[in-house]
Design brief:
Strands 1-2-9-4-7 form a five-stranded antiparallel β-sheet. Strands 11-13-14-16-15 form a five-stranded mixed β-sheet. The chain is of the alpha+beta class and about 475 residues long. It folds into three domains: about 120 residues, Jelly Rolls, CATH 2.60.120; about 150 residues, no CATH class; about 140 residues, Heat Shock Protein 90.
Length: about 475
C-alpha cells in the first residue's frame, strides 16, 4: 500500500532536534521541497534498493535491519521523534553510496518527513558547506584508511604464511640434501666393494648369484614392513647373533640397517647358501651398502614428495590459475589452510578434523574463504597460546554448509563479544594485530557469500561458526 501524503508543518519540523537550529526560511524550504507521509506497518525501503529519500520520524516507530545470509537482523528500534535514516550519505560525491545500506520498516502506523536525496544533498552543501567537506573527508579518509590497513593485514598474513611455508619446506629439503650426501658416500663404498669382489679369485657363477641377490634385496627393501621398536630390537639381536655364529665382524653396526630394509636371518641364510664361504663377508658388506642406498633413495623420494605436496597446498591455498568464483570443495580449502599454518602449530596443539564428506561442492570465492579460515585458525592458536585442541568441523545445516572452528582457549569475554567483528577492535597487544581480521572475515562471509559468521564462547570452548549457502545466488558479488 502506498503511503498517505499529509500536510507539512514547518513548526513541527522546527520542534525536532535535527532541525531546531534552522530559521523560518530554511524550515519553509524543507516543507516546500519535502513531504510528510504516513506509512502503514511494513517495509519502507529494503537494503540494496536505490537510496532516493532521507526519512525523519515524526510519530510512531521504526525498525532498522541488515541482511545477514538469508535473514534480516534487527540492529535498531526507536520511537524517538527526530530519529532519521535512509539516504544519509547523499551529500557524498559520486554514486558509489547510492543504495540503501540497510532496511527500514514500521511496526505501527507512523509519520515521516521525507526529503528527496537530491534536495537533502543540495541543502547540506548550501547551508553547511564546511561541514559537508569535513564529513566527506572523514568518510573517504576512513574508507581509504581501512582499505590500506586491509592490504597491510593481507601482507602481514602473507608474510606469516610465507615464514610458515619456508619452515615446512626447509625440513624435507634439508633431509633430501643430507640423504643425497650420504647416498654419494654409500655408492662410492659400493663401487670399492665391487672392485674388491671382482678382483678376487671368485667363480663367475658366484658373482652372478651375488648380483641376483642384490636385485632381490632391493625389491625386499621396497616392501619392508613397519616394525615397532620392540620388534626391531628383537630382529637386530637375532641378526647380531647370526653374524657371531658365522664369524663375521661388525654385526651390531650393520644390523639396524638390515632390519630397516626388511632383511632377517632367513634372508641371510639364503645369501650364505648362494655364495661360497670366502665371499660371504664381502657379499654381506655389499648387500648392506645396497640396503643403505635403497633406504636413502626412499628418503629422498619421500622428502621431494613432501616438498611437492607443500607446493600443491600453497597453490590450492592461493587458488592460482583458477577462476575467482567457482564450485569448491570446502575440505580441500580447509586442509590446504591447515597445512599452510603448520609452521605455527606448536607441539602442544592437537588438530582434530571432523569432516562431513557428504557435503557437496559449494559456490564460493575459494581464495577469500581461505583468508577467512586463516584468520579464524590464527585467532584460535593465539587464544590457546601453544596448548590445547583445535577442532575443525563441517556439517550440513539445512540448505547451508556449516564450517566450525572450536578451540579450548580461555574464551571471549561476554562484555566484548558484540564488538569482536568491529573494524580495528583487537584484544592483542599493541603491534600484534590491526583488529581487521574478523572484520574482513565477516565481510567476506556475509557480504560476498551471503552467509553468516557467529561466535559462541564459554571458557574452554569457543566456536566460530560459518554458514555458507549450498546454492549460488542469481548474481555473484563482484570481487573487490
Amino acid at each position: 500500500m502506498s503511503p498517505r501524503r499529509l500536510a507539512c508543518d514547518p513548526a513541527e519540523l522546527g520542534s525536532l532536534f535535527l532541525f531546531e537550529k534552522l530559521d523560518g526560511e530554511q524550515l519553509a524550504r524543507l516543507c516546500r521541497e519535502g513531504r510528510v507521509e504516513e506509512f502503514e506497518p511494513g517495509w519502507v525501503y529494503r537494503e540494496g534498493e536505490p537510496a532516493t529519500c532521507f526519512y525523519v520520524l515524526l510519530e510512531g516507530s521504526l525498525v532498522l535491519s541488515r541482511r545477514v545470509g538469508g535473514d534480516d537482523v534487527e540492529v535498531n528500534r526507536s520511537t524517538q521523534r527526530g530519529v532519521y535514516s535512509g539516504a544519509m550519505q547523499a551529500y557524498l560525491s559520486g554514486g558509489e553510496q547510492a543504495v540503501y545500506r540497510g532496511s527500514m520498516r514500521v511496526a505501527e502506523p507512523s509519520r515521516f518527513f521525507v526529503l528527496p536525496a537530491e534536495t537533502f544533498a543540495a541543502v547540506l552543501r548550501e547551508w553547511f558547506p564546511m561541514a559537508v567537506h569535513l564529513l566527506e573527508g572523514l568518510f573517504f579518509g576512513m574508507q581509504n584508511t581501512q582499505r590500506t590497513i586491509n592490504q597491510r593485514e593481507r601482507l602481514l598474513a602473507l608474510g606469516s604464511l610465507s615464514a610458515g611455508l619456508t619452515h615446512e619446506l626447509n625440513n624435507p629439503a634439508a633431509a633430501a640434501v643430507r640423504a643425497t650426501s650420504a647416498l654419494r658416500d654409500r655408492v662410492a663404498h659400493m663401487r670399492a666393494k665391487l672392485g674388491v669382489i671382482a678382483s678376487g679369485p671368485y667363480r663367475r657363477e658366484a658373482l652372478q648369484a651375488l648380483v641376483e641377490i642384490q636385485e632381490r634385496t632391493a625389491e625386499r627393501v621396497a616392501k619392508a614392513p613397519s616394525l615397532s621398536p620392540l620388534e626391531a630390537a628383537d630382529r637386530e639381536d637375532a641378526l647380531a647373533d647370526w653374524f657371531d655364529d658365522h664369524g663375521l665382524a661388525g654385526g651390531l653396526r650393520i644390523a639396524p640397517t638390515l632390519v630397516q630394509g626388511g632383511l632377517d636371518t632367513d634372508w641371510l641364510e639364503q645369501v650364505a647358501d648362494a655364495v661360497e664361504e670366502e665371499i660371504l663377508p664381502g657379499a654381506v658388506g655389499w648387500l648392506n651398502y645396497t640396503v643403505e642406498t635403497e633406504l636413502l633413495m626412499n628418503e629422498i623420494a619421500d622428502s621431494t614428495a613432501r616438498i611437492s605436496h607443500l607446493v600443491d597446498a600453497a597453490k590450492q591455498y592461493a587458488q592460482l590459475d583458477r577462476a575467482p568464483y567457482q564450485e569448491a570443495d570446502v575440505h580441500e580449502l580447509l586442509d590446504s589452510t591447515l597445512m599452510m599454518l603448520g609452521g605455527k602449530m606448536k607441539r602442544g596443539v592437537e588438530v582434530v578434523r571432523e569432516y562431513d564428506r557428504s557435503l557437496p561442492r559449494i559456490p564460493a570465492y575459494p581464495g577469500e574463504l581461505n583468508q577467512v579460515w586463516t584468520n579464524l585458525i590464527d585467532n584460535a592458536l593465539a587464544a590457546m597460546d601453544g596448548e590445547g585442541t583445535l577442532t575443525v568441523r563441517t556439517a550440513r545445516d539445512g540448505d547451508q554448509a556449516l564450517v566450525e572452528f572450536a578451540d579450548t582457549g580461555p574464551g571471549v569475554p561476554e562484555e566484548i563479544r558484540d564488538r569482536i567483528f568491529d573494524p580495528f577492535f583487537t584484544t592483542k597487544p599493541v603491534g600484534e594485530g590491526t583488529g581487521l581480521g574478523l572484520d574482513i572475515s565477516w565481510r567476506i562471509v556475509v557480504n560476498k557469500h551471503h552467509g553468516s559468521l557467529q561466535v559462541r564462547s564459554v571458557p574452554g570452548d569457543t566456536r566460530f561458526r560459518v554458514h555458507l549457502p549450498l546454492t549460488a545466488p542469481d548474481t555473484p558479488e563482484e570481487s573487490s
